[in-house]
Amino acid sequence: MNDPSSNMETKVSSGEVLDRLQPVVAQALLSNARTASYGPGVVLFSEMEAAESVFVVLSGDVKLSINSRDGRRLILHIAGKGAIVGLASALSGAPYEMTAETLYPAKLGIIGRNEFLSVLLRHPEAYQTLIAELSRQFTKACDQLRTLGLSSSAPQKLARLLLDWSENGQSSEGGTRFRFSLTHQEVGEFIGATRETVTRTLSEFKSRHLIAFQGSTLTIPNKIALESYTHC
């Protein structure tokens, strides 16, 4: 981790929670943050550690996961630009409930928990947005657990995951496309499957023309066709 630099002056614009806060609140948070640049694979915090800070994602992505003692991992979410990582623990005072790790080179704003809560005391109107964000995260976690627990096969789970990711993709005459640059191991950690199973299932989807790859871009030509796998 690089040493944090001076306070930030830039304003983040994204679809994540920071962009949904009132501008005066977002600026107040950023004025209390210090920036740091990280390489990929850096653990920002681990589950059950004391929650001392929140992290605002300024660029790059942060992988959020829960891990078992025997080394198994379940990825819950990829936090993108504008996300506030460690939000629930900062509000509750409980230890971090998950592990946060940079997925790619990332620039983050670090806000101490006391400073974060101080901003909220001055701007209580922010609580409504933050509570809505926590509710959204809870709903997404329930959706993922439903997929893991109620989907009977790896193709079913992977089809649901790809369709979920495509919701924020770009639509065109050729289908819906989005960035797909996770390793097969990481994809498996989303759905509770092995790397080999993910590789085999993706190959099957490609052979059936349900998906297509061009570099790190995945295209779903026909969502309805892929959705048929979620009911298998």
Description:
The chain is α+β, with helices and mostly antiparallel strands. It has two domains: 17-148, Sandwich (Jelly Rolls), CATH 2.60.120; 151-231, Winged helix-like DNA-binding domain superfamily/Winged helix DNA-binding domain (Arc Repressor Mutant, subunit A, Orthogonal Bundle), CATH 1.10.10.10. The chain is built from nine helices and twelve strands. The strands form three sheets. The chain has a four-stranded antiparallel β-sheet. Strands 2-7-4-5 form a four-stranded antiparallel β-sheet. A four-stranded antiparallel β-sheet has the order 9-10-12-11, with helices on one face. A hairpin with a 5-residue loop joins strand 4 (62-67) and strand 5. The longest helix has 25 residues, at 126-150. The model is unreliable at 1-14 (pLDDT under 50).
